[in-house]
Amino acid sequence: MNPPDGGSTDELPGIAPRLRDLRRNRGLTLEAAAGRAGLSPAHLSRLETGRRQPSLPMLLGLARVYGTTVSELLGEMPPERDAIVRGGPLEGAGGEGGGWLYRQAGGSGRAMQALRVRVPYGTEGDLVRVHPGEEWLYVLDGRLRVVLGETVHDLDPGDSAHFDSLTPHRIAALDISGARLLFVHTLLQSPTAELCLGGGAHRL
User: Fold this and answer.
1) Which of 202, 200, 129 is nearest to 164 (CA)?
2) Which of 102, 98, 115 is nearest to 188 (CA)?
3) 23: part of which helix (H) or strand (E)?
4) E strands within 59-159?
């Protein structure tokens, strides 16, 4: 049960300062973070000062906004994670969504997810994506078109892009042979994570 606004509770010790520190470290105002999490600024302020305790849905929403996990919000020690990810072919070993092939290129359970991706020619090139988070991509081979808002960028091998994915964006291969890229995003455990991969719902 939530305490009255003027009270406090030890039910989730330490979570209030963690919520405040995470928001500040992400450079978000109280209003911006609350809006992304579906809360009022006053309610988020009470969570950050310990006058209210967050429900599980609130924790899930805030974890997505801050690019972390509920376990880390609660101060739980994460298990040791393997820092090495071995390479391998994209075909038949990773995931597939909307014609895109992708394979994990970073550790699981992290705030960022790193992938190796093959974008085929002419697949969903007109699909506009808008969702919370950041994206970074690096073209390994082929040519890639990245449309950010109304601005069109044609990328060659060695070029990269880093953008706020709340900016409407489209990604398409320009060559019939497709394009290969390294792709990093901050949508771990978000229900919109699959939008980065053209609607594929596969977990890596």
Assistant:
1) 129
2) 115
3) helix 15-25
4) 95-97, 100-104, 113-119, 134-141, 144-148, 151-155
CA 141 from centre of chain = 24
Rounded-to-integer distance, Cα 33 and Cα 62, Å: 8
With beta carbons less than 8 A apart as the criterion, state whether 46 and 4 touch.
Answer: no
Note down pLDDT in tens along the chain; length 204 residues: 344 333 333 355 578 888 998 899 888 999 999 998 889 999 999 999 988 888 777 888 888 888 877 777 777 655 556 666 666 666 554 455 556 776 766 666 666 778 888 998 875 556 788 877 889 999 999 999 999 999 999 999 999 999 988 889 999 999 999 999 999 887 644 444 444 433 333 322
Name the region of 149 (left: φ>0; alpha: ψ -120 to 50; beta: rest). left
pTM higher than 0.85, yes or no?
no
Q: 189: closest CA among 93, 71, 19?
A: 71
